[in-house]
Amino acid sequence: MTTVPAHVEEATPADDYSLVAIARRRWEALKAGDVGSLPIVIGLALIVAFFYSRNENFLTAGNFTNLMTQMAGVTTIAIGVVFVLLLGEIDLSIAYVAGVASVLVAQLQVPDGHWEVKGVLAIAIAVTITALIGGVQGSFVAYVGVPSFVVTLAGLLFWQGVILYRIGEAGVIIIEDSTINNVANYFFSDRAGLLIAAIGTALFALSTLAGVVGRRRHGIRTDNLVIVAAKLVFVGAVLFGAVIWANKERGFPLAFVLVIILLVFWTWVAERTTFGRHIYAVGGNDEAARRAGINVARIRLYVFMISGLMAGFGGVILAARLNSVDLNAGGGTLLLDAISAAVIGGTSLFGGRGRVISALLGALVISTVGNGIDLLGYSSAIKYMVTGAILLAAVTLDAVSRRRLERAGR
Amino acid sequence: MTEAAAETTPTPAAETVPTLETRAVSKSFGQVDALVDVDFEVRSGEVMALVGDNGAGKSTLIKCIAGTYSLDSGEIYFDGERVSINGPKDAARRGIEVVYQDLALCDNLDVVQNMYLGREIRDWFRRLKEAPMEARTADTLKGLRVTTISSIRQPVASLSGGQRQSVAIGRAVMWNSRVVILDEPTAALGVAQTEQVLALVRRLADQGLAVVLISHNLHDIFEVADRITVLRLGRNVAVYQRAQTTQQEVVQAITAGVPTKVSGIEGEATIK
Q1: Between the CA of residue A202 and those of A322, B79, B137, what are the distances in Å?
Q2: Residue A76: partners with Cβ closer than 8 Å, 6 or more residues away
Q3: Best mutation site among A24, A34, A209, A218 for testing chain B: the one with the most B CBs within 10 Å?
Q4: Is A299 on the interface with B (CB under 8 A)?
Q5: Do A218 and B150 touch (CB under 8 A)?
Q6: What pLDDT is recorded for position B13?
């Protein structure tokens, strides 16, 4: 660092790790259009404040545990959507693929003697099949080159047909298998909940510290230890806070623990593995990825399999919550909720930008709005209009920040 | 190809063996002869400019060397040894790197991620090892004296054209490469940034790499190149020593040069 040209001197140097410098860099990135999760966090705070001011019940422990189980299915499906959107593709079949998983677990557990499969094995079979469904659709996209919009639109129709065909005569299948039902209806005891929060905090602390130590060993200082500590305290506080709050009612729901495990796992895949890195590369510039020797078609195929897999998990959670599957499996607003969740959470529709956590953030927004409007006694007409407006705001924000980023690039 | 074609032409440039050499390379697409018996060479420590009008066959020649196209006929020698290059990975393994005009960077990824794209360092569990990648990226850029990038953890989208070019070049030279081919590296740049990139090109050669520079801009070429190979209509026209020629002479060769070989008859490239 001997000669630094004049035009960069005004920018905050990257190797300055004082709190002020970090804050200034964040601010500069923000001005350049890199808004990250900031709008959604602010939006969420406003939504919560609004509903709380209208109805005190909104923040009760009962409603809180309710909300967590309500949003578990959509969040799970939205995780798969995030991956598809990272590629700049779309998967319209997810809701009915989720429905297929619902029907599969329900039919597998029916105690009718011949092909009865129980519990975890039934779930495993269901999600394996939906992952394969995603793989079939993905291979059309990746190897044949059919636009994903069309392939998955065909999937939407096809799998809806399959669900109607399988459930047609019965109209509804009751799920009696307790393992399957527990996926969405089991609540941890107070002590187990706290133990989970402690384990979660400890794991987060360990992985964060391991990262810091590793970087220091290579002589790279990037994190201010105050910020690292603040992050740890924040995550710990959120986990323990949520558990303690839920413990005032039924306790912390298993469904949400599953959602957190899935979020952590897929975040790890997206941000810490070569596979994840290559997904971002293909979404950003597939030609560059191809020239860098990345097997672009295989990445596309795997991502559609992830989409199918996560839709399957979501379908199992949704079926378990209702203890049954009927003709509406995968219908209603499930598809749009899942896609909106990923987009509202900050994943770009243009590919290459977004994080797995946006599935949770977006689903939180959609679910709190839905839950709050139900609580205030408004009709679903209002719910749709509000959700639509939020979605438009989110996509507009994405487009605007993208334009700003491009301009900042000049 | 006959052994007769393998007769080397001694050049006054250096006594050493060319790092990369093509002999009588031909390539056609259907009825179109894109390259006809083209000879080309580049030596370690020199900048060899490759010039010609649109359709002269520059890009085709580069793509043959880089393994994107297969040869119809002709030979490629690497360090004096005949090699066959099957695909881009093969070329990369031998240390031939191409920086294409569109740079092939992912705007959404940061500098480190782009430098290591497709060749990430990972552990036994396929986890990325960010720290060594970041450290080596910083070293590489420092070695090339690219000091204008304030953070190598910022997305490439936020870099200027010259900085992006520097990243693309840095990526190409990071892998113990021997030959770096730059396709129009200054085409989209302003005056100051062009100067930066040209200085970087010169530095690559001074560090012992064999550099091939494709450009339409003769001013740039006369600033950094040691020798200039002119192609016209897919054929060799001339090879000039930069110090012993003028821009007019090169322009003349580009627009109206006479091929030094007639198809089917072996001859020697004119060295002036």
Answers
A1: 34, 56, 32
A2: A258, A259, A262, A310, A313, A314, A317
A3: A218
A4: no
A5: no
A6: 47
A247-291 pLDDT, tens digit each = 988 889 999 999 999 999 999 999 989 999 999 999 999 988 988
**Whether B110 contacts B118, CB under 8 Å:** no
H-helix or E-strand spanning residue A232: helix A225-247
| CB pair distance less than 8 Å for A220 and B134 | yes
ipTM: 0.80
3-class DSSP assignment, residue A144: helix
What are the backbone dihedrals phi and psi of residue B145, each rounded to the nearest 5 degrees, phi first? 55, 40
Handedness of CA B239, B243, B244, B245 (dihedral sign): positive
Residue B215, CA atoms < 13 Å, CB-side half-sphere: 27
Contact A273 B92 (CB under 8 A): no
What tokens does B219 get?
Answer: 């001013």
Residue type, A208: T
**In this complex, do A273 and B128 lie within 8 Å of one another by their Cβ atoms?**
yes
The helix (run of H) or strand (run of E) holding residue A173 is: strand A172-174
Half-sphere exposure of B219 (CA within 13 A, CB side): 5
pLDDT tens for each residue of B152-180 = 888 888 888 888 888 988 888 888 789 99
Q: Please provide the distance, in angstroms rounded to a whole number, between the alpha carbons at the two ends of chain B.
A: 27
Model pTM? 0.85
Residue B212 pLDDT more than 80?
yes
Indicate the DSSP class of residue B53.
S
The domains located in chain A, with CATH, are: 39-186+253-409 (1.10.3470)
